[in-house]
Amino acid sequence: MGKNNKLAFGKINYILMIAGIAVLIIGFILMSLDSEPYGFGTLGLTIGPMTVLTGFGIEFFAILYNPKESK
Questions:
Q1: To pair with 18 at 20 to 30 A between CA atoms, which of 9, 34, 52, 57?
Q2: DSSP letters spanning 19-66
Q3: Does the predicted TM-score (pTM) go above 0.90?
Q4: Which residue range is the domain that position 45 belongs to?
């Protein structure tokens, strides 16, 4: 039972997940830095949301990525 236990994801999957979370956090910070009222500036309407969508894309890829097992 000891050596047969495998994690659901590989090391690269977890690295990509952490990178995706970091990009998500950066995107939300960018949206909060907008100085326009109600976030209607460039940061709040364009750059921040695009960064958040990129972070979600990285997360989606990290979950679906299947590294080839080399033996």
A1: 34
A2: HHHHHHHHHHHHHHT--SGGG-SHIIIIIHHHHHHHHHHHHHHHHH--
A3: no
A4: 11-64
